[in-house]
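Q: I have 243 residues here and want to know how they pack in 3D. Can you give me a structure?
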Amino acid sequence: MASATGIPDQNPAARGSEENEPLLGEPGDASQKSEKGIQFNFVIGTAVIAQAGIWILTAIVWAAVFTAPVSLFSAHPLLNSAGVLLTTQAILVLQPTHLPKQKKQGTNIHAVLNMTSILSLIAGLIIIEYNKISHGGIHFVSVHAILGLVTYILLIIQALVGITQYYTPSLYGGLDNAKAIWKYHRMSGYLILLLFFATVSAATQTDFNKNVLHIQLWAVIVASILTLIGIVPRIQMQKLGLK
């Protein structure tokens, strides 16, 4: 029997045994327990390390902004760091799901968090572009700006594919065709997260940061690595089609 999203119901035990082996650790170490609410997905296994890393990174950015003279531009790093935070939460909430009911609930929350993230990021882009235009600045010439633009484009494509393949699989010629690209959606999601961290790291080399915010590159790298240490071990190999 198919669900409302067009995804057929399956034997929970069978699917659970196939999709609960993390990249590091034993099967079930990073899986949502049937008796646990989805809110625990944010801290299951090594997620606490990821939470520490991403909240430290967000705090670094926000502290730098609010200890410097506040201007319209200040909203750009605030909104973008919030977007990275939300995207990280979207990954964490979905990773441990392995039963049909969990996956459906997790995907809905994942979608809401990611859409909120995109809105925050787009608002940040609009602000920086308005600031550039109003001051006659040059667009997309720094490493930070170029990486940011690439990340924006990939993220929007990622969101469109993710939403349509899950909620409207008929656009891909049916459920089987839509399911065939899920693993690529997951892989590209992790790639985009890496691009986020690279973009934030590159931001520390901009003139504005060097002259005003003074965010240290090493601090961004450490916080980013902490986040990845928490996320990577929870990757379920079967969801990437690697087992």
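Q: Anything worth noting?
A: The mean pLDDT is 89. The CA atoms of residues 168 and 174 lie 9 Å apart.
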